Amino acid sequence: MSKDTFHAAVKNALIKEGWQITHDPFPIVYGNVNMLIDLGAETLIAAENSQEKIAVEIKSFLPQASAISEFHTALGQYINYRRALSVKEAERNLYLAVPIIAYNTFFQLEFPKLMIEENSVKLIIYNPEEEALVQWKN
Amino acid sequence: MSKDTFHAAVKNALIKEGWQITHDPFPIVYGNVNMLIDLGAETLIAAENSQEKIAVEIKSFLPQASAISEFHTALGQYINYRRALSVKEAERNLYLAVPIIAYNTFFQLEFPKLMIEENSVKLIIYNPEEEALVQWKN
Question: Contacts of residue A33 in chain B, CB cutoff 8 Å?
């Protein structure tokens, strides 16, 4: 499965649960910094339903890649995007979407668990094969 | 200039100022997470002098690359490394080393300045051509 497949899986899973995808990619601009120029920004989307607006940073955590490397980037993006959103659209919640396989392995290790908790990272756990959302963790 | 050149420039600049390079790369292990597996970890070194122990995350911020992408990863690494160090070696200070050209441009924008300040990121600004340290910012 390619990164594009994971991206499509999360989008389709959100749509199945009644979300409308409003932006793909979702642009965030803060002063002179355009986060769309970010090479990883194609993984950021926005969605809404009647109750809530969200932004979702989609990560694939492919087993053959380095999980800790992807985690560094994911955490940095999350903290930066969240801060920029807090100014632009304080009511929109940011989620980091991770596949169930990565959640059940790497994300159960002591260090990632600690960092997710300490940095108040909200998670969406998804099943890429079934294009389904497994769990939301706030 | 390649990334290796920037890495060597920071090491030589530290040595010129009386620091001893003790680890290159500097391994950080926390539980079952080995941050040396990190693809970017070859840029983390450790040094000490008679007064202080430091770890330095060396970034090149090459002008042709996306500064915001490199900034996401740099911030995530910094926050993760600092947290792991706080448990293993609380007395060692972590610095993010950035070239003077990037410091005078990207790092003067409102957003990076805000994030560096809010996340208490300590900086070393270096001149890669002269292999010299320009400024320490705590």
Answer: 68, 109-112
Q: Is A63 on the interface with B (CB under 8 A)?
A: no
Domains of chain A by start residue, with CATH: 3-51+72-100+108-137 (3.40.1350.10)
Taking the whole predicted model, whether its pTM rises above 0.90 is answered as yes
Q: pLDDT digit of tens for each residue in chain A (138 aa)?
A: 777 889 999 999 999 999 999 999 898 889 888 876 655 556 899 999 999 999 999 999 988 778 999 999 999 999 999 999 999 899 999 999 999 999 999 999 999 999 999 999 999 999 999 999 999 999
This complex has an ipTM of: 0.94
User: B14 exposed, middle or buried (CB, 10 Å; 0-12, 13-18, 19+)?
Assistant: buried
Interacting residues of A20 by C-beta distance below 8 A, sequence separation 6+: A47, A48, A49
A36 Cβ under 8 Å from any chain B Cβ? no
Judge: B32–A110 Cβ closer than 8 Å, yes or no: yes
* A-chain residues near B39 (CB < 8 A): 66, 69
